[in-house]
C-alpha cells in the first residue's frame, strides 16, 4: 500500500514539474516570456514561432471606449499586416490572445496586467495615463516595453514606454504659437481636466503664454456635462481671446455651446481627444464651426500618406475615426524595436529594451515627420515637437481638415524638457 | 445680477434632472426597501433610444416612446432578476442592481458607436429673455417637464386605486398583501416608473448637448438628493434634487471669488457637504420618516 501511494505521489510530482516547465503545454520558452516556437493561434505563417503582445484598453464601460475600441482594432490590423509581410525574425505577432479591459480604472488595469504579464513579451497597448502610471514601476522592474495610448509628457522620461507624437504639453505650446501667428490673442485661458491629460496641456499652454507674453489663467473642470457651469461662467466672465480646451468631446461641446449662448465670441483650440465628428451634429455645431480648432499630434484618418493608405486598406470598411489612426501610429515604434531585437538575435525582454535604446528613428511610413521616434537619446532630444492644426469640416471623413501641417513653434523648439510638464502648472 | 439668475436657472434645470432620478430611487426604495443602482443604466438607455427614435419620429413622441420602452425594460429586469430575491437581504439585492447597471450599460454602449449622438431636441442652445435675464430654453424645458411629471405622479399616488395600493404596500407589505394588494405588481410597477423617470431624465440631459457613454455618471448626483430629502419621501426627492442643483450651480459660480481657498472644484463636493449639514440636524433627511425600533 505504502509503495502504491509513493508511486502515485512520485507520478504526481513528476507531472506537475514537467508540465510546469512547459513541456506538455509547449506554449512558451522559459527564457523569454511571450515568445514560443509554436505558431500563433490562427497564424498567417504556420511555420513561424509566435510573439505574444498584450493590450490593456478601455473596451466596455470606461470613458474612452469610443477611442479605445478603434485603437485596439487598428492594432490588430497593423500586426496582421506585419504577419502578412512575413512576420519578424521568424515569428508572427499575436495581439488577440491577451487583450484585456481596464474599464479605465487603475486598479483594474494593474489587475489584468498582472494576469497577462507572464505570458507576453511586451504590451502593444496600455491605454490611459493614470492607468499606465499604476503599472509603470512593474513595467520598469520587469523590463516590459509598452506602447502607450496617451500623450502625457511623462512618457518622454520612461525607457520602457514607446511613445509617438507630441505630448499634450508640446501640442498646447504649438497651439498658442499658431494662435499668436494667426489671430494674435492677448489673453489665454486653459480649461482642463485634472491629472496628466488636462494638466499636461494646461502646463504647455502656460509655458506658451509666458513665452509669447500673454496673460494666462487655468480653470480645472471636472468631467460631466452638468459640471461645466463653472468653466462656462469663467469664460464668459473672463472673456479670454483664446481658450485651450483639454476635455472630452461632450464636455468640450457643452463648454463651447453654452459660452456661445451667453455671448462669448473668442477662439478655442482643443487637444486631439476633445474632438469627435458627432459634435458637428450637436446643438453646439454652429459655435464649434465658428470658434473651435483642433490641435493634433498627427494627420487624420483620411490623409494620403503611405501609412494612412496602408491603414485604411488593412481595416477595410470602417466608420472613419482617428482612434484607428492613433492605434496604427502607436504600433510603429514597437515594430521597429522587435525588428531590432530580432536582428540582434535577442528576442527577450532584456533584448527588446536594449533594442529600444538603439532606435534613433522610426519609419512611420509618412504618418509622422522624418526623424520622429528617437529613443536613443534623453527626453529632451527624443521628444517629438511637431503637431498640426485642423478645423471642423463637414465634408471630411473625421469631420476635421488640416489647415496647418506639422510644425514646431518657437516655444516648443526652445523648451527645455527636464521634467514632465504637468508638474509645472 | 444677471449672472446670479442665470446660475439659478442652470441650478434649477440640472436640479430637475436630479429630482426625476431621485424620484425613481425613492419609488423603488419605498416599495422594496432596496436602493436600486440600476438607475444610471436606465437613464443612459432612455437617452440612447431617443437618439435613434428622433430620426424617425417627432422628438416629443420619441421621448414618450423611449420612456415607455425603458419602463418595460425595467419591469422585465425586476421580474427576471430581482423578484426571485424577495425575502433575501436587501444588501444582496442592491449588489445585484449594481451588476445589472453594468450589464445594461455595456449593452447600451454598443448602440452608441464611435461618435457622440444627438437627441434631436427642438430648443438646442436657444435662450429666452425672462424679465431681462437671458435663460436657456433647455433649463426651462427641464423644469417644466419635471413639474408636469411630479404633478402626474402625485396625482397617481393620491387619486388612483393602484396608487393607494402602492402606498399601502410601502407602509406595510404583509398587511397590504392580506388586504388583497398585489404586492408583486407593486414591485414591478415601481421599477417601471423608476425606469421611465430615468429615461426622461437622460433625454433631458442630452438636450442642448450630446449623448455619450459617460452620461450615466450624472445619475449619481441623485444619491445626495435622496439622502438629504429623506430616503422614503417623494416630496423630499424633489426638494433634494432641486436643492442639490441650486447649491452646486451657485457654489460653482461664486466659490472661486468668495472662497478660493476651497480649491477649484468645490462645487462637485458641495451636494455632499449640504447633505452632511442637513443630516446633522435631521438624521432622516428633510422629509424622511424617523424609524422607531423597539428593543
Automatic annotation (TrEMBL), chain A:
It holds the Pfam family Peripla_BP_6. It comes from the Bacteria. SUPFAM superfamilies: Periplasmic binding protein-like I. Keywords: Signal. Residues 51-390 form the Leucine-binding protein domain. InterPro entries: Leu-bd (IPR028081), Peripla_BP_I (IPR028082). Belongs to the leucine-binding protein family. This is ABC transporter substrate-binding protein.
UniProtKB/TrEMBL annotation, chain B:
It is found in: Cell membrane. Keywords: Amino-acid transport, Cell membrane, Membrane, Transmembrane, Transmembrane helix, Transport. It is a multi-pass membrane protein. GO terms for molecular function: transmembrane transporter activity. The chain crosses the membrane at residues 12-29, 59-77, 89-112, 139-159, 180-205, 225-247, 259-281. It comes from the Bacteria. Its main location: membrane. GO terms for biological process: amino acid transport. InterPro entries: ABC_transp_permease (IPR001851), BCAA_transport_permease (IPR052157). One of its GO terms (cellular component) is plasma membrane. Belongs to the binding-protein-dependent transport system permease family. LivHM subfamily. This is Branched-chain amino acid ABC transporter permease. The lineage of its organism: Bacteria, Bacillati, Actinomycetota, Actinomycetes, Streptosporangiales.
Amino acid at each position: 500500500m505504502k509503495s502504491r501511494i509513493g508511486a502515485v505521489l512520485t507520478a504526481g510530482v513528476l507531472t506537475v514539474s514537467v508540465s510546469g516547465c512547459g513541456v506538455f503545454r509547449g506554449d512558451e520558452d522559459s527564457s523569454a516570456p511571450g515568445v514560443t516556437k509554436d505558431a500563433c493561434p490562427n497564424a498567417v505563417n504556420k511555420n513561424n514561432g509566435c510573439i505574444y503582445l498584450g493590450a490593456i484598453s478601455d473596451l466596455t464601460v470606461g470613458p474612452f471606449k469610443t477611442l479605445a475600441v478603434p485603437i485596439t482594432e487598428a492594432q490588430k490590423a497593423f500586426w496582421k499586416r506585419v504577419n502578412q509581410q512575413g512576420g519578424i525574425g521568424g515569428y508572427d505577432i499575436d495581439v488577440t490572445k491577451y487583450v484585456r479591459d481596464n474599464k479605465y480604472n487603475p486598479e483594474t488595469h494593474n489587475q489584468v496586467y498582472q494576469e497577462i504579464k507572464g505570458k507576453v513579451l511586451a504590451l502593444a497597448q496600455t491605454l490611459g495615463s493614470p492607468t499606465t502610471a499604476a503599472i509603470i514601476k512593474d513595467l520598469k522592474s520587469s523590463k516590459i516595453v509598452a506602447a502607450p495610448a496617451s500623450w502625457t509628457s511623462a512618457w518622454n522620461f520612461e525607457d520602457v514606454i514607446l511613445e509617438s507624437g507630441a505630448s499634450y504639453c508640446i501640442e498646447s505650446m504649438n497651439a498658442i504659437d499658431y494662435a499668436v501667428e494667426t489671430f494674435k490673442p492677448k489673453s489665454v485661458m486653459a480649461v482642463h481636466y485634472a491629472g496628466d491629460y488636462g494638466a499636461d496641456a494646461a502646463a504647455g499652454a502656460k509655458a506658451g503664454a509666458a513665452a509669447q507674453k500673454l496673460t494666462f489663467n487655468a480653470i480645472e473642470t471636472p468631467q460631466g456635462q452638468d459640471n461645466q457651469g463653472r468653466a462656462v461662467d469663467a469664460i464668459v466672465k473672463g472673456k479670454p481671446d483664446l481658450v485651450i480646451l483639454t476635455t472630452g468631446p461632450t464636455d468640450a461641446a457643452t463648454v463651447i455651446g453654452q459660452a456661445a449662448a451667453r455671448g462669448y465670441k473668442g477662439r478655442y483650440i482643443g487637444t486631439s481627444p476633445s474632438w469627435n465628428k458627432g459634435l458637428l451634429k450637436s446643438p453646439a455645431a454652429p459655435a464649434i464651426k465658428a470658434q473651435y480648432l483642433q490641435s493634433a499630434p498627427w494627420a487624420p484618418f483620411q490623409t494620403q500618406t503611405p501609412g494612412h493608405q496602408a491603414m485604411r486598406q488593412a481595416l477595410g470598411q470602417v466608420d472613419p475615426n482617428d482612434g484607428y489612426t492613433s492605434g496604427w501610429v502607436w504600433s510603429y515604434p514597437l515594430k521597429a524595436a522587435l525588428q531590432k531585437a530580432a536582428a540582434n538575435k535577442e528576442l527577450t525582454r532584456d533584448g527588446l529594451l536594449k533594442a529600444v535604446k538603439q532606435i534613433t528613428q522610426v519609419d512611420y511610413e509618412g504618418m509622422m515627420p522624418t526623424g520622429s521616434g528617437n529613443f536613443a537619446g534623453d527626453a529632451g532630444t527624443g521628444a517629438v515637437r511637431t503637431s498640426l492644426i485642423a478645423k471642423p469640416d463637414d465634408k471630411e471623413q473625421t469631420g476635421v481638415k488640416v489647415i496647418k501641417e506639422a510644425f514646431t513653434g518657437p516655444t516648443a523648439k526652445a523648451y527645455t524638457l527636464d521634467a514632465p510638464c504637468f508638474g509645472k502648472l | 445680477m444677471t449672472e446670479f439668475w442665470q446660475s439659478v436657472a442652470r441650478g434649477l434645470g440640472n436640479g430637475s434632472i436630479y429630482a426625476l432620478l431621485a424620484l425613481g430611487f425613492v419609488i423603488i426604495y419605498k416599495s422594496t426597501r432596496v436602493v436600486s443602482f440600476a438607475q444610471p443604466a436606465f437613464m443612459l438607455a432612455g437617452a440612447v433610444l431617443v437618439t435613434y427614435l428622433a430620426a424617425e419620429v417627432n422628438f416629443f413622441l420619441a421621448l414618450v416612446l423611449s420612456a415607455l420602452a425603458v419602463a418595460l425594460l425595467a419591469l422585465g429586469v425586476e421580474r427576471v432578476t430581482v423578484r426571485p430575491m424577495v425575502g433575501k437581504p436587501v444588501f444582496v439585492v442592491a449588489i445585484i442592481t449594481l451588476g445589472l447597471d453594468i450589464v445594461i450599460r455595456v449593452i447600451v454602449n454598443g448602440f452608441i458607436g464611435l461618435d457622440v449622438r444627438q437627441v434631436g431636441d427642438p430648443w438646442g442652445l436657444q435662450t429666452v429673455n425672462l424679465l431681462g435675464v437671458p435663460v436657456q430654453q433647455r433649463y426651462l424645458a427641464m423644469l417644466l417637464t419635471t413639474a408636469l411629471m411630479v404633478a402626474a405622479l402625485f396625482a397617481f399616488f393620491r387619486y388612483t386605486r393602484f396608487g393607494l395600493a402602492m402606498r399601502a404596500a410601502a407602509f406595510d407589505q404583509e398587511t397590504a398583501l392580506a388586504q388583497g394588494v398585489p404586492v408583486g405588481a407593486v414591485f414591478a410597477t415601481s421599477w417601471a416608473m423608476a425606469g421611465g423617470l430615468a429615461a426622461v431624465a437622460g433625454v433631458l440631459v442630452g438636450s442642448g448637448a450630446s449623448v455619450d457613454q459617460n452620461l450615466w455618471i450624472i445619475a449619481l448626483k441623485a444619491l445626495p438628493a435622496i439622502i438629504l430629502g429623506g430616503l422614503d419621501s417623494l416630496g423630499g426627492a424633489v426638494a433634494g434634487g432641486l436643492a442639490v442643483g441650486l447649491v452646486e450651480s451657485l457654489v460653482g459660480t461664486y466659490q472661486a471669488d468668495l472662497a478660493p481657498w476651497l480649491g477649484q472644484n468645490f462645487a462637485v463636493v458641495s451636494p455632499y457637504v449640504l447633505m452632511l449639514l442637513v443630516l446633522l440636524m435631521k438624521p432622516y433627511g428633510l422629509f424622511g420618516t424617523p424609524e422607531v425600533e423597539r428593543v
